[in-house]
UniProtKB/TrEMBL annotation:
It comes from Alteromonas arenosi. Catalyzes the oxidation of 3-carboxy-2-hydroxy-4-methylpentanoate (3-isopropylmalate) to 3-carboxy-4-methyl-2-oxopentanoate. The product decarboxylates to 4-methyl-2 oxopentanoate. The gene is leuB. GO terms for molecular function: 3-isopropylmalate dehydrogenase activity. Keywords: Amino-acid biosynthesis, Branched-chain amino acid biosynthesis, Cytoplasm, Leucine biosynthesis, Magnesium, Manganese, Metal-binding, NAD, Oxidoreductase. HAMAP family: LeuB_type1. This is 3-isopropylmalate dehydrogenase. The record marks 144, 194 as: Important for catalysis.
Length: 365
């Protein structure tokens, strides 16, 4: 029997609620595919600050190091918003994990599935033309990590600064991720930048052009970030792979999630290029709906599917999850945020969506 060990970091807000559903789904694929996925839960984020004094305890980091992959929920929330930046869950836990494991390649696939156009807030004719975008986001450099970063002075003389910084090597490796992914898709890379203003973006363009020479079968276009955000709403079908720096990819991926219907649909894989990865919903801890059992678990479940595919080599199990998710949505088992106000009373709970997905995984056996 194939056996794996994963670290489960549920975190804050809706994290534990949607993670419980992903765990049910992992139980189902264990049963159906005869594999064993040992799960070790570790504290992280605000929960870890409250209970262990820091957002990323050493035992959590060690547990991740000893695992085949990390399944991550979400972290942060109003309770920890006033902490100094370096102690906040977002930086102290999530950004540290990304950087510690060199998870530079972040894949965020957003798709409107055939028949599910009505979930999209786009105008009907635009939704019907299709959304099938893979955001490839650089995740361990750029303005998130560049030095110097800080704040100095007092009163009106206070100055704050972040540094956007990219090395050629960092751009090159994420560009390769994007072109490789495009070869398995519709063979188009739209590289998103602000080359009319930013020096980093000039280098980004140069290096992307160079890398493109190695992929003659893939078309490369450059597009400014401001134009890209509006083109995504006007004509999303023109995009296949969107190659983005760290901050631009953060913004573009939330927009892509919403084009398909909800933040709660967008899964993500953050990979080191050697098979190790952290898998998490692109959305956050959703404090506005946490604790009510109404969060959409699909992004967490699809993140588990990406983990099975990319880190555990279990493509058949991943396919089964993906198919069960699409079927569940098509059958109208939907959390409230996917429904219009007239139909909101038909909303399924987090657990009902999870159960429906499990049922469809097992029924297909
Ligand atoms: P958010 O993504 O948590 O929420 C934005 C909106 O999307 C909210 O209206 C929320 O209800 C909705 N939403 C998100 N996930 C949903 C789901 N699964 N089902 C239904 N609706 C969903 O973004 P925010 O409010 O800006 O951030 C809240 C906290 O989460 C902040 O502390 C932020 O730093 C943190 N955050 C963490 C992660 C992460 O852990 N990976 C990602 C993004 C934000
Ligand atoms: C995401 C999140 C994170 C990011 C935050 C929580 C640090 O928004 O994964 O998209 O900005 O990368
Ligand atoms: Mn984000």
């Amino acid at each position: 029997m194939s056996e794996y060990t994963i670290a489960v970091l549920a975190g804050d807000g809706i994290g534990p609620e949607v993670m419980a559903e992903a765990e049910k789904v992992l139980n189902a694929v264990e049963q159906r595919f005869g594999i064993s996925i040992k799960r070790n839960a570790y504290p992280v984020g605000g929960y870890a600050i409250d209970n262990h004094g820091e957002a990323l305890p050493a035992t959590t980091l060690l547990g991740c190091e000893q695992s085949d992959a990390i399944l991550f929920g979400s972290i942060g929330g109003p309770k920890w918003d006033t902490l100094p930046l370096e102690q906040r869950p977002e930086r102290a836990a999530l950004l540290t994990l990304r950087s510690h494991f060199d998870l530079f390649s972040n894949l965020r696939p957003a798709k409107i599935y055939p028949g599910l156009e009505a979930l999209s807030p786009l105008r009907a004719d635009i939704a019907a033309s299709g959304v099938d975008v893979l955001v490839v986001r650089e995740l361990t450099s750029g303005i998130y990590f560049g030095q110097p970063k800080g704040r100095e002075g007092e009163g009106e003389d206070t100055v704050a600064f972040d540094t956007m910084r990219y090395t050629q090597a960092e751009i090159r490796r994420i560009a390769h991720s994007a072109f490789k992914a495009a070869q398995y898709r519709r063979k188009k890379v739209s590289s998103v930048d602000k080359a009319n203003v930013l020096v980093c973006s000039r280098l980004w363009r140069e290096v992307t052009e160079e890398v493109a020479q190695e992929y003659p079968d893939v078309e490369l276009e450059h597009i400014y970030i401001d134009n890209a955000t509006m083109q995504l709403i006007k004509d999303p079908a023109q995009f296949d792979v969107m190659l983005c720096s760290n901050l631009f990819g953060d913004i573009i991926s939330d927009e892509c999630a919403m084009l398909t219907g909800s933040m709660g649909l967008l899964a993500s894989a953050s990979m080191n290029g050697e098979g190790f990865g952290l898998y998490e919903p692109a959305g956050g801890s959703a404090p506005d709906i946490a604790g009510q059992g109404i969060a959409n678990p699909v992004a967490q479940i699809l993140s588990a599917s990406m983990m099975l595919r990319f880190s555990l080599g279990q493509a058949a199990a991943a396919d089964a999850i993906d198919a069960a998710v699409v079927q569940t949505l098509a059958d109208g088992v939907l959390t409230g945020e996917l429904l219009d106000t007239a139909n909101r009373h038909k909303a399924a709970t987090t657990a009902q969506v999870g159960d429906a997905i499990v049922q469809r995984i097992l029924a297909a056996e």
